[in-house]
């Protein structure tokens, strides 16, 4: 019985230690002239109590490239995701691009939406 209780306590506290990704701005709206590349900084924070690992940051179209932290973000610390939107690859008008963040959090995925007005 003591072994079972000890095992349950260890399992409980192990499950509590997890990273949590806070994306400070989930929707980013901007206007850009056709042919211009717009650089965007997206602050993120690990609000959990274990290291946060970003595996990938994947835009849903070829008009945006990403750069993200390659080392774990410690609990309570901040990081940045850098995006570059190339308006030359989009038609004039308003459109959106989803950015999928893959990480080691419980939910595995987070999303940022870029809403760009190309003029």
Automatic annotation (TrEMBL):
Pfam families for this protein: DUF1573 (PF07610)
InterPro entries per UniProt: DUF1573, Ig-like_fold
Protein name: DUF1573 domain-containing protein
Lineage of source species: Bacteria, Pseudomonadati, Bacteroidota, Sphingobacteriia, Sphingobacteriales
């Amino acid at each position: 019985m003591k072994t079972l209780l000890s095992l349950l306590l260890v399992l409980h506290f192990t499950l509590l230690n997890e990273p949590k990704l806070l994306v400070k701005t989930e929707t980013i709206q901007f206007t850009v002239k056709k042919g211009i590349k717009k650089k965007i900084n997206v602050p993120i924070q690990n609000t959990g109590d274990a290291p946060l690992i970003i595996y990938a940051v994947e835009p849903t179209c070829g008009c945006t490239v990403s750069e993200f932290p390659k080392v774990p973000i410690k609990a309570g610390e901040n990081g940045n995701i850098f995006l570059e939107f190339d308006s030359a690859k989009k038609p004039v008008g308003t459109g959106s691009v989803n950015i999928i963040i893959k990480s080691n959090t419980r939910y595995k995925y987070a999303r940022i939406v870029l809403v760009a007005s190309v003029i």
